[in-house]
From TrEMBL:
<dbReference type="InterPro" id="IPR005858">
    <property type="entry name" value="CysM"/>
</dbReference>
<keyword id="KW-0663">Pyridoxal phosphate</keyword>
<dbReference type="Pfam" id="PF00291">
    <property type="entry name" value="PALP"/>
</dbReference>
<keyword id="KW-0808">Transferase</keyword>
<keyword id="KW-0028">Amino-acid biosynthesis</keyword>
<protein>
    <recommendedName>
        <fullName>Cysteine synthase</fullName>
        <ecNumber>2.5.1.47</ecNumber>
    </recommendedName>
</protein>
<dbReference type="InterPro" id="IPR005856">
    <property type="entry name" value="Cys_synth"/>
</dbReference>
<dbReference type="InterPro" id="IPR001926">
    <property type="entry name" value="TrpB-like_PALP"/>
</dbReference>
<dbReference type="GO" id="GO:0004124">
    <property type="term" value="F:cysteine synthase activity"/>
</dbReference>
<dbReference type="InterPro" id="IPR036052">
    <property type="entry name" value="TrpB-like_PALP_sf"/>
</dbReference>
<dbReference type="InterPro" id="IPR001216">
    <property type="entry name" value="P-phosphate_BS"/>
</dbReference>
<dbReference type="InterPro" id="IPR050214">
    <property type="entry name" value="Cys_Synth/Cystath_Beta-Synth"/>
</dbReference>
<comment type="similarity">
    <text>Belongs to the cysteine synthase/cystathionine beta-synthase family.</text>
</comment>
<keyword id="KW-0198">Cysteine biosynthesis</keyword>
<feature type="domain" description="Tryptophan synthase beta chain-like PALP">
    <location>
        <begin position="10"/>
        <end position="288"/>
    </location>
</feature>
Length: 301
């Protein structure tokens, strides 16, 4: 039985819960609350479901792609899973190029959705994966949506993530804290919130020197994503590997929130901020779930 009242899987992307941290934020300044946006509840398990679906939908509307085409994308994990899901929904062949040190769970999830994986030398990083995808596209081996330069990436968050935060806090949000990778989330949601209130502070999170935190990047200048807009970001704070991993474990053990390490990194920054500012409503983006990191050793064995 079909009908207009029955949603499809793509209709379930977004509208993720916003929940108050209780025990971890006990020492917050007077009147300050920390709210976590649980993006792991999206159908493919991360915040990247939003831009992945939006990039494909907008490309279809422009006639750039059509079902049956091959899509090629460089990814460190979550975007690849989200694109693999979206490609399965829409009927595309999906080829994902990424460093070979991704977690076992991520690789298996991508393949479960039917995606083909091309693994590159981890020592060469995401920069090499992006260069390889560009070369594949030049040879006519597929269409690149390019999450790093595609405006449909931040547009997804301007359309959905930002409005959801504003609505859920009834316009009381004072700070948005988000890890920075492609920067699509912080740019898109940040722009929307700034449009509603110029007083909202947008805080980006990058890794401290030497840290390798999945989902959080500080790009060399020549690889800085084209969608990055520094004008929307009021401050950038760094987080260490230890802080990110300790906070990830604390989120699970003390708050019951099973999230990934980039969520831990962003939460660590949000908690530092909460101790500094009185009367604030701080929203932190938790990009994904913790189950795709079980093999990495972050959680107790």
């Amino acid at each position: 039985m079909t009908g207009p009242d029955y949603p499809t899987l793509e209709d379930t992307v977004g509208r993720t819960p916003l929940v108050r941290l209780q025990r971890l934020a006990e020492d917050a300044a007077t009147g300050t609350v920390v709210l976590a946006k649980l993006e792991g509840t999206n159908p493919a398990g991360s915040v990247k479901d939003r831009p992945a679906l939006n990039m494909i939908q907008r490309a279809e509307e422009r006639g750039t792609i059509r079902p049956g085409d091959t899509l090629v994308e460089a990814t460190s994990g979550n975007t690849g899973i989200a694109l693999a899901m979206a490609a399965a929904i829409k009927g595309y062949r999906m080829v994902l190029v990424m460093p070979g040190d991704l977690s076992v769970e991520r690789a298996r999830t991508m393949r479960a959705y039917g995606a083909e994986l091309v693994l590159t030398d981890p020592a060469l990083g995401m920069e090499h994966a992006r260069d390889l995808v560009a070369a594949m596209a030049a040879r006519g081996e597929g269409v690149v949506l390019d999450q790093f330069s595609n405006p449909d990436n931040p547009d997804a968050h301007h359309r959905t993530t930002g409005p959801e935060i504003w609505e859920a806090t009834r316009g009381r949000v004072t700070h948005l804290v988000s890890s920075m990778g492609t920067t699509g989330t912080i740019v898109g949601a940040g722009h929307y919130l700034k449009e509603r209130s110029a007083d909202v502070r947008i805080v980006g999170v990058q890794p401290a020197e030497g840290a390798r935190i999945a989902g959080i990047r500080a790009w060399p200048a020549e690889y800085l994503p084209a969608i990055h807009d520094p004008s929307v970001i009021d401050a950038i704070r760094t987080v260490t590997q230890t802080e990110a991993e300790d906070t990830t474990r604390a989120l699970a053990a003390r708050e019951g929130i099973f999230a990934g390490v980039s969520a831990g990194g962003a939460t660590a920054v949000a908690l530092h901020l909460a101790r500094e500012v009185e009367g604030a409503t701080i929203v932190v983006i938790l990009p994904d779930r913790g189950d795709r990191y079980l093999s990495t050793g972050i959680f107790p064995d």
